[in-house]
Backbone:
């Protein structure tokens, strides 16, 4: 009888402890919520490739945070989501990061890719150098302040004495439309973002020059990642471990893609490659942009390039920023990003 009573008491105590634990869990926020990072992504953008690898390999939880993907329709919607606080991090532009910071909305920048754009022309074209652009109709992705266009125009003037705005016929527009016009013979050449250029290479179109080469011509000692992830600085300060974990997860995802060709098969649906040649060109272009440089060298080259771009584009390009703001790059993540 005593044994029965004791057993009942023990069961009641255990049940009470379980109830108490459940109540405490209901009141306290889960630890994972404190380490959540909401990543705003274009569903078929190249950053989604890295995000897919992070998810498949559990690289977020392995690095102390939980990654939540927010699929967005365009770069403009990504910026809106970021500025409204709907997304904690997005893939964006170094110039945009500098401008936000100079305007009193400080962010931190994590380098992601030096792949930017290529000047493409038909294989049979007589355009073989920038000097051959005189009198040609050139498609330019973006607008007159596109950094690739500014660098192309600067190199044309420096090396060939050409004023492309006057001596050629630039046409500004969206990359898909410009690609179609180049293929239809309505343009002589087009400066297209690297993933559009990769699709043209797969069709036999020829690369005249790249933004990466223009960057070096403007004084950089190596490739500069003008594209990267940006996070609000207050968020990065409040979630330092998670943010460093995010940077580590991105780096690990890039390492996996650099070493394991089978992982690329997982990404095929996101890449929307129409054929094997396009798939291989997209893969090659992505990996070529994943440079590993000491952060100090990366930042020094970016600072020199930024000053040159501001001199070319003026205040309309970077707002009040005349130099890269101090503290723009996320520190403490290790060199070789």
Residues:
């Amino acid at each position: 009888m005593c044994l029965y009573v004791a057993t009942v008491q023990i069961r009641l105590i255990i049940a009470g402890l379980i109830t108490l634990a459940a109540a405490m869990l209901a009141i306290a926020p889960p630890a994972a919520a404190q380490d959540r990072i909401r990543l705003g992504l274009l569903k078929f953008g190249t950053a989604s490739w890295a995000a897919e690898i992070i998810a498949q390999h559990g690289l977020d939880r392995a690095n102390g945070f939980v990654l939540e993907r927010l699929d967005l329709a365009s770069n403009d919607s990504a910026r809106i989501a970021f500025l409204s606080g709907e997304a904690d991090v997005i893939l964006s532009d170094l110039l945009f990061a500098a401008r936000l910071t100079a305007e009193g909305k400080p962010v931190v920048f994590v380098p992601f890719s030096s792949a930017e754009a290529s000047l493409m022309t038909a294989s049979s074209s007589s355009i073989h150098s920038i000097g051959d652009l005189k009198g040609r109709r050139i498609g330019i992705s973006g607008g007159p302040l596109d950094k690739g266009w500014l660098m192309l125009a600067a190199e044309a003037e420096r090396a060939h004495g050409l004023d492309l705005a006057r001596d050629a016929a630039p046409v500004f527009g969206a990359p898909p439309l410009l690609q179609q016009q180049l293929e239809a013979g309505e343009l002589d050449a087009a400066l297209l973002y690297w993933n559009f250029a990769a699709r043209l290479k797969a069709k036999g179109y020829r690369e005249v020059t790249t933004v990466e080469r223009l960057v070096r011509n403007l004084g950089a000692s190596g490739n500069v990642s003008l594209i990267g992830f940006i996070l609000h600085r207050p968020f990065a300060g409040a979630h330092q471990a998670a943010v460093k974990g995010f940077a580590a997860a991105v780096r690990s995802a890039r390492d996996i893609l650099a070493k394991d060709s089978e992982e690329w098969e997982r990404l095929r649906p996101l890449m929307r490659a129409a054929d094997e040649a396009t798939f291989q060109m997209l893969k090659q272009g992505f990996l070529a942009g994943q440079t590993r440089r000491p952060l100090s060298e990366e930042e020094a080259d970016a600072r020199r390039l930024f000053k040159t771009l501001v001199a070319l584009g003026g205040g309309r390009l970077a707002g009040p920023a005349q130099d890269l703001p101090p503290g723009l790059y996320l520190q403490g993540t290790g060199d070789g990003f």
Observations:
- The chain has three domains: 1-33, 35-114+223-318, 119-217.
